[in-house]
């Protein structure tokens, strides 16, 4: 007799993570970054700085860049830079993740 085995995929979403780990279309706030001064200045000109809301719109295929939205500005950012930006989930992110079945 065959048994049916139910497997449920569990995704761990931390309240604080890097921009690289942030799920798509999930609002977050920038906490800090460990980027070079030159890149920090370039990103600040686009509106990306501490205490600013940001979200990942799309992920490039095959390790391509992230498309980000910060305020009304959309831009692309390489993955190595995204790994050095720390973000925190916003309270409304939990309800969005629950709607999509990520949080139980």
TrEMBL record:
Pfam families: FeoA. Keywords: Iron. InterPro entries: Fe-transptr_FeoA-like, FeoA, FeoA_core_dom, Transcriptional_repressor_C. This is Ferrous iron transport protein A. Residues 17-89 form the Ferrous iron transporter FeoA-like domain. The lineage of its organism: Bacteria, Pseudomonadati, Pseudomonadota, Betaproteobacteria, Neisseriales. The keyword Oxidoreductase does not apply.
């Amino acid at each position: 007799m065959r048994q049916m085995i139910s497997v449920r995929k569990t995704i761990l979403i931390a309240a604080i993570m890097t921009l690289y780990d942030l799920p798509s279309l999930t609002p977050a706030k920038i906490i800090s970054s460990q980027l070079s001064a030159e890149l920090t200045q370039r990103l600040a000109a686009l509106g990306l700085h501490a205490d600013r809301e940001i979200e990942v719109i799309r992920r490039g295929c095959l390790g391509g860049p992230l498309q980000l939205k910060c305020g009304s500005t959309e831009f692309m950012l390489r993955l190595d830079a995204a790994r050095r930006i720390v973000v925190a989930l916003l309270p409304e992110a939990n309800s969005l993740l629950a709607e999509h079945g990520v949080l139980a």
